[in-house]
Design brief:
The protein is of the alpha/beta class and 260 residues long. The chain has eleven helices and nine strands. Helix 1 links the parallel strand 2 and strand 3. Helix 2 packs across helix 3. The protein is globular, with a radius of gyration of 18 Å.
Length: 260
Amino acid sequence: LMVEQLKFEIFGDSKEQKPVVIAHGLFGSGRNWRSVAKKISDLGRKVIVVDMRNHGSSFWHKSHCYEDLAVDLLDIVTAFGGSADIIGHSMGGKAAMVLALLYPECVNKLVVVDIAPVKYFHDQSDYISAMENVNLSLVNNRNDLDRQLAVTIDDLTLRAFFSQSVKFSQGNEKKWLLNLSSIKRNLPYIMNFPKLNAEALCQSLFMRGSLSHYVSDEYLSSIEKYFPNYQVATIEGAGHWIHAEKLSEFNHEVIRFLLD
């Protein structure tokens, strides 16, 4: 069942090879991936960076399960020729994995960034509450926003990341570019991974930060079950946001894999 199409940004105009589609993580948007997209497009690839549903400029919807997120990505891949290399981070990585498992013909190579096909147990609802509790009418700039988020969120980097999702427009209008109520309601699905009786034979690169716990060695068997042709790259000194923390090392690994 087709809903709306995801909003996206295109980098490069190559028609020589398959395009690359990038799917961001929870609370993010395509903007977080512009520098990676630019780097890959400089090497002669067309790169499509999407805003996932309930995020950024894309449509809001009451459903946020991975089967639906995969169909959203399928729709984009279909619009750009029917087969693509897919890069997905965190939530976007799970959506990309489900895409590869359910629609294998449309995924050429798969890059999954710091996430595994497993259920996670850390709680994100405190972050959502912190954002819901911001009184936007008292916010005139990012500093005001940061001050309000700081009441409950100690981590400066996280606050800066969340505050990117408030849109300031003419006439002092402010709004969240996140459908917080839908994301909150769907957290059980977002933290889980659907039970799929499938495997994807595409070449798959699983990247993890050495300081992150998202892709621990105990999860490698789950990865291998779904993605037998997988390899792992560990980026030293990086946490969960590898592409933000170690951009050049990240680009090096991804480009090596995609151009191989």
